[in-house]
Amino acid sequence: MLESTEVLTTAQMRAIESAAMATGQATGLQLMERAGRAVAGQIRLRWPKPRRVTVLCGPGNNGGDGYVVARLLHRAGWQVRVLGTDNPPGPDAAQMKRQWQGIGRIEPLTLAVLQGGAEGGVHVDAIFGTGLTRPPEGEVAAILHHLGRIKPPLVAVDCPSGLCMDSGALLGHPRGGGDLAPHANVTVAFHRPKPGHVIGLGPLLCGELVIADIGLHDVDSAPTARPAVIWPPFDIPRDQPDRPPTNPLLKQSPLHPHKYSHGHALILAGGPARGGAARLSARAALRIGAGLVTLAPPAEALPDHIGQPDALMRRAVDHELQETLADTRLNAICIGPGCGIDRAGALLADLLPARRATVLDADALTALSRDAALTAALHDACVLTPHMGEFARLFPDLAERLAATPSEGPAYSKLDAARDAAARCGAVVLLKGPDTVIAAPDGRARIHSAFDVPWLATAGAGDALAGMITGLLARSLPPLEAASLGTLIHAQAARLFGPGLIADDLPEMIPQVLRALQKFQSSSSVATALPMT
Ligand SMILES: NC(=O)C1=CN([C@@H]2O[C@H](COP(=O)(O)OP(=O)(O)OC[C@H]3O[C@@H](n4cnc5c(N)ncnc54)[C@H](OP(=O)(O)O)[C@@H]3O)[C@@H](O)[C@H]2O)[C@@H](O)CC1
Ligand SMILES: Nc1ncnc2c1ncn2[C@@H]1O[C@H](COP(=O)(O)OP(=O)(O)O)[C@@H](O)[C@H]1O
Ligand SMILES: [K+]
Fold first, then answer.
1. Residue 303 sits in which domain range?
2. How far is residue 451's CA from residue 233's CA, in Å, rounded to a whole number?
3. Which ligand is the nearest neighbour of the Cα of 276?
4. CA-to-CA distance for 480 and 486, rounded, in angstroms?
5. Considering the entire predicted model, what is its pTM?
6. How many domains does one find in the chain?
7. What residues bind (6S)-NADPHX, as annotated (predicted)?
8. Does 375 lie in the same domain as 321?
9. Are 123 and 151 in contact (CB under 8 A)?
């Protein structure tokens, strides 16, 4: 279970470790002993009966953790084989290595030696951790390739070796190409998840992620630059079954709440026979709690939208929006789903100067990418929701950096790309995928992991998400919060529905998700304290 929700870069983690050591909270040796003990403990939890284990130790402190694991498993009756490098390690790892050498021998860390030993048993990957700076090569690369091929039960110390913990990229491999890398059954990381555990290939290669407490909590206040926050899947915590329902969607407005105090969302739709996407957005905005939702196609497409839901209002909007926007109660706009690129461009020219809270999706993003003046008119109440293809059209240089084969660590990450894009355009950027990253222009960022719901990748799911975020903006949530909560509710709706989901099901699942959200104490508890199941 993930209890911590801040995601720290490796540099931030090192700063915290250094502060702990400098202030005398813990020595490096103590931290290493705790790290090794956490890994050995997780191994014994999974394999309670002692068996054979091969511990692969690298040249740095990750290897030092490995020597601790070897010692503790030996003490617990396991049959331990250790392979290690000759390089002189740092003082803490050297001390742990010596302690192991008092117990058993260290064989060379080569593929021939590994293959020459008895087959089977658990393997512990303690070759490289946060100190990985360049692609593994030579014997280590051969060993990693071998582990990827034979797929033994594998426990990774801090991360599977070769994975860049800042980006989730495999150094030296084309992005996304992780088929031959070792896949851990479980990864035991320390203190906090790192971006590479939750984005890119990380979730695929890490297996189950366990974050072990190594006693660094007291120095959390060490100066670090804006850690990102992870929004994992949520469940009702078993130890807090009946928290009062105070989530922001259930809060009544003061004194005399009425539909206008829950906002009025405008969903701009496209021409004839293209209305399905916008209707999905509108339905999602209604279900998530916007007080009123108006669907606005051009007059010629208005007849397409008769029928359910009756709660949805319709009005024609042709080429200009100024008259419509004169109604200041329209406080959240969705533009893009099924809109048509030319229509989206024309409407954005009116819409953006009005500085209303606005979700820009699909065709609106393509229109933006074709018109620099529109991009320049973006503002901090805008939420852009690109998938990677749309992102590449909007920010080609950032997408190119993100797609390049990483040759050194820390590699450029999806988190970096979303942050850079948000800073550049001055709006919230939500970069979609199983690892959705949401960034604000000021550097705040959220990662939402939905690797467990691949069936969410279905036509129209993005339109429903745009509608949910628009509905939350109508409810006056700030853009980053609306984007984050919308993403969370969207994935949870898919999770509750299960495989077989089509986009039309997403709005219908919202009430069930909202009922579960009632159990959480406040919006901030939703943001920062959700356990990963
Ligand atoms: N700090 C702490 O308090 C705690 C840290 N802990 C543990 O320490 C880990 C971080 O340790 P670390 O910084 O020593 O880095 P690590 O990942 O062992 O590798 C560095 C070594 O590998 C080398 N190297 C790198 N890439 C290479 C390549 N491609 N091919 C070959 N060599 C390569 C690099 O050499 P260099 O780049 O200097 O030439 C250096 O020698 C962390 O993940 C956690 O497990 C825990 O004990 C908790 C307390
Ligand atoms: N493999 C995946 N696992 C979980 N969610 C995914 C995956 N791929 C995409 N998604 C999510 O599915 C939705 C798809 O949106 P989008 O690409 O805009 O589709 P569409 O344009 O068909 O509506 C996004 O919310 C995205 O984050
Ligand atoms: K490792």
1. 259-528
2. 10
3. 2
4. 10
5. 0.91
6. 2
7. 61-65, 129-135, 158, 277, 338, 387, 463
8. yes
9. no
